[in-house]
From TrEMBL:
Keywords: DNA-binding, Transcription, Transcription regulation
Recorded superkingdom: Bacteria
GO cellular component, as recorded: protein-DNA complex
Signal peptide start-end: none
GO molecular function annotations of the record: DNA binding; DNA-binding transcription factor activity
Keyword Metal-binding: no
Native source species: Levilactobacillus brevis KB290
InterPro entries: LysR_HTH_N, LysR_subst-bd, WH-like_DNA-bd_sf, WH_DNA-bd_sf
Protein name according to UniProt: Transcription regulator
Residue span(s) of domain HTH lysR-type: 1-58
């Protein structure tokens, strides 16, 4: 299966037009259509329902879009990792993070390290990160935990250090706020809750539910494939999500079109962001990351 055909398919699905994809890639519309048809023949399924001046993804196409996006992301990450492995540097520091929020914290700390440091950085699910740290594939990882959720870290050979404790907030489109008396529970009952995780996992949903007490009974959450998709759906009023109050300030833009509501009265609505590492790993840069957060307030 050709990588460039997968890219054309994803672009066409996102743009909703063979013509727009052709213009983007400086190709003819016929050439794009031919490549998509070849892909459909190869996998034995129709991906687009072709109508006059309009195309829509079929059920098979929607499923294939999810898998194709994941495959392309994996290929890009693998290419990056291989390139990183071949680089020669004075130090090699392998680190991981769970979501863009942990990525913000990690970026702050890494920018404070010596410029000669060679990094290998991975974004992965909680289970994947814990496994990689235990197997010493990476030196450390930043993950979200909750005091009420038992990640069983203490039962392993891992050490954990709390870097930041942040209060959880509810994010939703301001267009949904039609009644100022509505509470977070009202919104949770009315709209779907989504979250982003790079891998299939219910961990973040469980963290949400453990942090909001009785409100957990009012919703079920589903995973989306990217942080950008999550922000788009929330900003358009199609869903709502939970965010760490302070960390989102480092990521929010005026174009998100998202309002953040405090979960007042929910005393457990906070999460801890932790650094985990193997107790036998004496990489000095791990301690340097800890010192960074000891001396900086968030």
């Amino acid at each position: 299966m050709r990588n460039d055909n997968l890219i054309l398919f994803v672009e066409t699905a996102q743009l909703g037009s063979f013509q727009k994809t052709a213009e983007l890639n400086l190709m003819s519309q016929r050439a794009v259509s031919k490549r998509i048809s070849a892909l459909e023949t190869e996998i034995g399924a129709t991906l687009f329902d072709r109508q006059k001046n309009k195309i829509n993804l079929t059920a098979a196409g929607k499923h294939f879009l999810t898998r194709a996006t994941e495959l392309l992301n994996t290929m890009r990450m693998t290419t990056y990792e291989v390139q990183q492995i071949t680089q020669q540097a004075k130090e090699q520091f392998n680190v991981g993070y769970f979501s863009p929020f942990e990525g913000v914290l990690l970026r702050m700390a890494l920018l404070d390290l010596p410029t000669t440091t060679n990094f290998m950085i991975e974004e992965a699910g909680i289970e994947h990160l814990i496994s990689d740290v235990l197997l010493k594939k990476i030196d450390c990882a930043v993950i979200i935990d909750n005091p009420l959720f038992n990640a069983k870290i203490d039962q392993t050979d891992l050490e954990s250090v709390t870097l930041v404790t942040d209060h959880m907030t509810l994010g939703l489109s301001p267009d949904l706020i039609t009644d100022q008396t509505d509470s977070p529970a009202d919104y949770l009952a009315k709209f779907p809750v989504i979250y982003y995780s790079s891998e299939e996992s219910t961990y973040l949903e469980e963290v949400f539910k453990s942090s909001i007490g009785q409100l957990a009974d009012t919703f079920n959450a589903r995973r989306v494939n990217s942080y950008e998709q999550m922000q788009l759906l929330v900003g358009m009023g199609k869903a709502i999500s939970f965010y760490p109050t302070e960390l989102i300030k480092y990521m929010a833009t005026p174009y998100d079109h998202i309002t953040y509501l405090s979960l007042d009265g929910v005393t457990t609505a906070h999460s801890e962001f932790k650094l985990i590492y193997h107790h036998g790993n004496h990489q000095p840069l791990i301690k340097q990351i800890q010192r960074y957060f000891d001396t900086h307030q968030f």
